Amino acid sequence: MQIDIQQYKTIVFDCDGVVLDSNLVKTQAYFRTAKNLGASDVDAQALVDYHVRLGGISRYHKFDYYLREILQQAATPEAIQILLDEFSRELEVGLLHCEIAQGLPALRELTPNANWMILSGGDQQEIRTLFAKRNLQALFNGGLFGSPDNKDTVLAREKASGNLQFPAVFIGDSQYDFEAATRAGLDFVFLSDWTELANWQSYCVTHKILVRANIAALVS
């Protein structure tokens, strides 16, 4: 299948595994966060497994699940915040040094009139700070969006405001990315190089999803 990337008025990018090679960084941070706060290896791995299974879902939801379903504890705002703070500390260094996708400047040059947006499951303020430090924010003229709002909420809001104009495409690497794009009426491209979706080949075949290896492959 082919794609004419220049046709789109809006291009929405997931962050982890699409713009940044940060999936493994975040997976390891979930494990270390749980361990640092006293979890057993089994419970920490259960959190990791849930995180990988629900790629693209907010960390707020994942920690709520971790407390209630894995630790069998009350998921109070205070308990969730402790996990969030520890997770942010674990993430900071890794995100500052992980690889940036090749081909971003070339794709921006190819789509000069498109509105570019980041839509991540990561913390919104964390993403904005990170992209400023890594000199990426100027590429994404449509804004940088993330948790605590989920992707469905953000897409609906940006459509209603007129910031997200059609035709539009979502470039992601998870099942949730595809589902959110479909619900919002966006086209979708799956990037495979850095994905953590275990069965991505069969999933993409079943759902007739266009696959490319990485950002650079959209330019060539």
Overview of this structure, please?
The chain folds into two domains: 5-21 and 100-218, 3-Layer(aba) Sandwich (Rossmann fold); 24-97. It has 220 residues and is of the alpha/beta class. It has a six-stranded parallel beta sheet. α3 (59-70) packs across α4 (77-97). The chain has nine helices and six strands. The longest helix is centred in the middle third of the chain and has 21 residues, at 77-97. The mean pLDDT is 95. It has helices at residues 23-36, 41-53, 59-70, 77-97, 104-110, 124-133, 151-161, 175-184, 200-206; strands at 10-13, 115-123, 143-147, 168-172, 187-191, 210-212.
What's this, in brief?
The protein has 220 residues and is an alpha/beta fold.
Helix-strand blueprint:
Layout: E1 10-13, H1 23-36, H2 41-53, H3 59-70, H4 77-97, H5 104-110, E2 115-123, H6 124-133, E3 143-147, H7 151-161, E4 168-172, H8 175-184, E5 187-191, H9 200-206, E6 210-212
Parallel strand pairs: 1-2, 1-4, 2-3, 4-5, 5-6
Helix pairs in contact: 1-2, 1-4, 2-3, 3-4, 7-8
What's the total number of strands?
Answer: 6
Q: What strand order characterises the main sheet?
A: 3-2-1-4-5-6
Tally the structural domains.
2
Order of helices and strands: EHHHHHEHEHEHEHE
User: Which fold does the CATH topology of the largest domain refer to?
Assistant: Rossmann fold
Structural shape: globular
Our estimate of the beta-strand percent is: 5-15%
State the secondary-structure class: alpha/beta
**CATH homologous superfamily grouping of the largest domain:** HAD superfamily/HAD-like
The pLDDT mean sits at 95
Q: Tell me the distance between the termini.
A: 14 Å
Poorly predicted parts: none
